[in-house]
């Protein structure tokens, strides 16, 4: 049966979520990318709560005045990791959201690692 690109990505994400689970000690770093924006959340799945989040819509990111490209993903990864450190998060489980690990997703993850998050 023919599937759209979005349906395929959602299926990949569901398959991934069967294996990736966040806890309070090691939350899930969830990445979501739309046509216009990028979102990062640190989620405790046991409590069902978001511990910290950052997106291209936040004031800290808008102050950088970047376009939504790989360079912006790198900056967003650094900002998100710094916010996570403030919230006391040091280790995470990476959830790429069904997206391929390249381009923006890879740049975001590597920038978060540079700041000191442990995957």
Question: How would the blueprint of this fold be written?
Answer:
Layout lengths: L4 H13 L10 E6 L4 E7 L4 E7 L3 H4 L7 H17 L6 E3 L8 H12 L4
Parallel strand pairs: 1-4
Antiparallel strand pairs: 1-2, 2-3
Write structural notes for this entry.
The structure is a single chain. This protein is 39% helix and 19% strand. The chain is α+β, with helices and mostly antiparallel strands. Helix 3 (70-86) packs parallel to helix 4 (104-115). The mean pLDDT is 95.
Please work out how many helical segments DSSP would assign. Answer: 4
Unreliable stretches, pLDDT < 50, 5 or more residues?
none
* Cα-atom radius of gyration: 14 Å
User: How many strands, what sense, and barrel or not for the largest sheet?
Assistant: 4 strands, mixed
Please estimate the helix content.
Answer: 25-40%
Distance between the termini: 36 Å
The general outline is globular
Strand-and-helix sequence, N→C?
HEEEHHEH
């Amino acid at each position: 049966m023919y599937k759209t690109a979005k349906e395929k990505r959602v299926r990949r994400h569901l398959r991934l979520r069967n294996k990736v689970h966040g806890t309070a000690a090691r939350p899930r770093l969830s990445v979501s990318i739309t046509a216009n924006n990028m979102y990062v959340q640190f989620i405790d799945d046991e409590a069902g709560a978001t511990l910290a989040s950052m997106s291209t819509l936040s004031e800290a990111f808008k102050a950088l005045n970047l376009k939504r490209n790989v360079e912006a993903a790198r900056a967003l990864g650094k900002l998100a990791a710094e916010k996570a450190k403030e919230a006391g998060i040091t280790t995470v489980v990476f959830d790429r959201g069904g997206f391929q690990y390249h381009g923006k997703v890879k740049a975001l993850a590597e920038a978060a690692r540079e700041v000191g998050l442990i995957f």
